[in-house]
Amino acid sequence: MTIFSIPQAALDAQATATHPTTSVWVSANAGSGKTHVLSERVIRLLLNGTPPARILCLTYTKAAAAVMQSRIFRTLSSWSELDDHQLQTILSRLENKPVNAQKLTYARQLFARALETPGGLKIQTIHAFCEALLHQFSLEANIAGHFELLDDISRKKLLQQARCQLLIHDDAQSLLKQLFKIISEETFNQLLHEATQKQHEFSDFLSFILYENGEEQLRQLFNLAVDETHQRLLEKIKQTALLSPHAMKYYQTNGNSKAKNIIADFLQLVSTSDEENIITLVSNIYLTTTGKPRDFSRLFSNKSDEIWPFVQKEIEKKQNQLSTLLEKYQCVQLVTLNMAVFQLCSLYLKIYADLKKANGLLDFDDLIERTLHLLQRRGASQWVQYKLDHGIDHILLDEAQDTNPAQWQIIQLLAKEFFTGDSQRTNTRTIFAVGDEKQSIYSFQGAEPENFAKNGRMIQKQIQHVNEKFEKIQLHYSFRSTADVLKSVDLVFETPENYKGLSADNAKTVHEPIRVNSPGDVIVWDVISKQTSTLPDDWHSTVDHLDTPEVRLADKIATTIADWLQKGEMLPAKGRLLRASDIMILVRKRDQFVPALSRALKLRNIPVAGADRLQLTSHISVQDLMALARFVLHPKDDLSLACVLKSPLFALSEEALYQLAAQRTGSLWQSLNAHASSHDYFKEIFENLSKYRALVDQIPVFEFYSHILNNDKGRQKILARLGPESNEVLDAFMDYTLTIQKTGLPGLQAFLETLSKNEPEIKRELDQNHEEVRIMTVHAAKGLEASVVFLVDSGSAIWNSHYAPHFFKLPLNGKQAFIWRPNAEFKTKPFEKALSHLKESAEEEYRRLLYVGMTRAEDRLIICGYSQKREVPNTWLHLVKNALKPYAVPTKGPADDIAAWRYSITPSTSFPIDQKILGEASQEFPPLPAFFHHKIPAESALPKILKPSVTNFATDTDSEIELFSAQKILNVSPILEAKNTNKAFSIEYGNLIHKLLQYLPDCPPEKRQDYAQQYLNIKASHWDDTKKNNALHDIWAILDNPHLKLLFSDSSRAEVSLMGIVKIRGKEQMISGRIDRLCITQDCILFADFKTGTPPEDETAITQNYWSQMALYRKMLQTIYPEKTIQAFLIYSQGAKIFTLLPKKLDTLLDEIAL
């Protein structure tokens, strides 16, 4: 195993990036340690004294957040176990300066501080952050406080409802008639899908285009003059198309046999007035089927006379004129159709939004849009920023290149208060972002790679404007890949045509390897092309078993891997044998190659994780369970019953099924019934199926399938036949049954219909720790790595206009417009320009995908591919082959007819082979115990939790807030404050007194007066002197009361939480609450609860809820301390009114509490 050292330049760059008082913008190469830098920066922020709750770290995925949090906690927890010398060495190296004993003590406390922070360290995705923010400020955001996130199932259901409502809506009928003349149902569904995908951008555009003279603006976009109306253009097209009399006569006289149809069209054009006929005839006459001008010279037999040049000139002139007129005619049509589509989409999106609102649901796009609206909303935004100003000091952003424009706006608004000079906080506040434009591959989610550099410049300008520290850093050093892999990447992206669009600078890549002496290589296999072949005579062979290029390549890869694992291939850089988990196979898309490769690997007994995504209904085990459902619902469904009998659940042989089916006179079910009387095996199957038919009407869907898979060992049978990967599929299927059972219609029929219609997809996280070969797309592999990577080029076209969106983004008067193109026949200049831009962007992202795929490899990279008959230029394989072949040497390929080249710059080193090959010895496991196959009996539920506290006085969840920090306590949103000023003041008054009663007893008696006055001057500076004096009077009246002396003594405690189970009227009840003040002496217990409302005249006027609350607290304390006398006090802060509650009355009240 090779050992490498880290250059000082790399360490210096990381130290600068993690400095806790400097805002940093990091551009990092693949494998340069972005996660390490982020984690270390968080640790240094904590070490610098930043409370954990004041750090916000936004990651791109939940998995990345979990990895980062795990790293941080692992580091912090290890510090608590080190001795002083070890910890001092680590901290000195981390902070690049000596540390004292106080710092060592503080560092050891960080793990506990991070764990005990309310809500934990905020390391989360931006969607999770937005969700939490909207729950916190639901009123200001104008959404339901109990909102839930839409899952895929509910979303599909709502969209289907919205579509159905749109189709029957009165306002949509004329629009639908207009559109369905030119589009199909499939195009209509795609149109609605795209509108939903861009719902918030699209809604903003619709509100502008439908209500701000939008039709005129669209006409300007297509360069239509005022007089170029639909009817005038049609008349002009017809008149222009007609030939002059002498030209027409010449045409009729000299036209050859091919001209007859054109002459007939001319004659028909003269007499017709139908719009569709006119356009069709003109197009047939002057244009070819591809839309190009027709060559009329081919239609004349005699072109040598003196008249032909004049006729030719007239025809060419008309062709040029008609080309312009027909395009303008298309543009007029587009304006009309687009206005209809805009109205239809506006209605559809409103229906969808109303359905979400009625059900209290938000989707992921809503989280971003609502948060952005909240932070921009006048009045409410200042309140939100004020509250956030108390809670966020440092923002860290991971994978910044994949952040879309709306998310960037949120981050900029969050960071705006950092650099305005208006913040309530005086400490240094920073923003940190790390990203790599070369790895921006999520354009379908709205990511724009150029925004990374653009936002970096904007943040830099804001920070430098307030004279704060800012650094831009490049992380060129790579810790992941060998020098061979990195150099190959640089060679591929060395030429301008290859590095175009890779970054904002449009510069070639530069990678500096840390693993300079680690041996590695890059191997290029020549493309496997389609060969001319005949279909096999064996009709049993499936299509994917034919000798297609993808099947051949899958076979070669599987054979190569099998050879490695069997012969003990070494990983020289790691000094050990290659394992299955070291191998990752990357594809551009999930086509037929993926199942072919998975099958080829399994045939060679190579463990494979399967695809990273799987459509649930495409898996054979789920299809068998669906067939079982169809049979029990419809016993005469012979095909479904046959599928069930052949499935692992019953494993009927071909011969036995033939015996049942071949000579039957009735249904297959009837035949099984008849054979059951004479064959024990058929009898057992018949009895089980009869039992399932009876069960389906008695229990819910989840319990039905649970009985089959668990009680009847169906899962065990399926796994035995289909392998362990089916386990995850069955888990996902059972989860789906439970979800549908909760949200959908009851019954197996409704479930089956929903499952068939929705076709849910499993997104699987492939675990690198499992001994399995991983197959995934390059998109899914982002952030992952493997010792050996196969990068497979499918040879398909980089760009295809068939995949172009229906709505094109076009600039319109300084705004972004979405213009609909019904089909490819509408070839206007704005669309052609937009298509050209889309093609260029797709090619740039294609090259960025290649960069991501190549940089996943640690030691060995193999680039291979297949193609059909027509090869596509500039594919991954072509780019790599052309760049590396001049520097590579020929090597043995996977087959004699497949050439290969090897590129390597690091000398290989021989290592002794370890004779102990992992996984070579098969492990035998004992049989599962019997109880494993039986359902565990349900445990009795815990008692319902009672929370007796009826008022929550908590004003700040931050446990580290200082009593005299320069912050005002403001607890009521301005949205509420304007409507209920008196109530707001009453709450604020009570909270202030509550805080003082909590903290003053801990202060020296001689300083309490000064502290209280200072506190009110800071926290209640907006109060007049009368209010402050009243507050001080009430505080001293309570603290100096002789009956409460023990409650505010040194032995007392504030804010004491209690939780436990007590018996009330013979019934166990769980109680959870918090006592404002508690004192426990040797003989007695005193406790008090503070109230802010208007105090009652006497004890009889105290509200029943307060009596019940105190009675439950007393009962809880009595359960814990049965030998002590317990006295309860109710203290009203206004007027300092104190009630001593009699124990006898509190005990009596327990029998009256309604549980």
From TrEMBL:
Domain annotation UvrD-like helicase ATP-binding: ranges: 7-482
Keywords: ATP-binding, DNA damage, DNA repair, DNA-binding, Exonuclease, Helicase, Hydrolase, Isomerase, Nuclease, Nucleotide-binding
Pfam families referenced in this protein's UniProt entry, alphabetically: PDDEXK_1, UvrD-helicase, UvrD_C
EC number assigned by the record: 5.6.2.4
Entry's Gene Ontology BP terms: recombinational repair
Gene Ontology annotations for the cellular component aspect, listed alphabetically: cytosol; DNA helicase complex
Binding locations of ATP: A28, N29, A30, G31, S32, G33, K34, T35
Keyword Zinc: no
Tagged with keyword Transmembrane: no
Domain UvrD-like helicase C-terminal: 483-783
Domain of life: Bacteria
UniProt GO molecular function: 3'-5' DNA helicase activity; ATP binding; DNA binding; exonuclease activity
Reaction catalyzed: Couples ATP hydrolysis with the unwinding of duplex DNA by translocating in the 3'-5' direction; ATP + H2O = ADP + phosphate + H(+)
PANTHER family: ATP-DEPENDENT DNA HELICASE SRS2, UVRD / RECB / PCRA DNA HELICASE FAMILY MEMBER
UniProt-recorded name of the protein: DNA 3'-5' helicase
Organism: Bartonella bacilliformis (strain ATCC 35685 / KC583 / Herrer 020/F12,63)
Lineage, highest ranks first: Bacteria, Pseudomonadati, Pseudomonadota, Alphaproteobacteria, Hyphomicrobiales
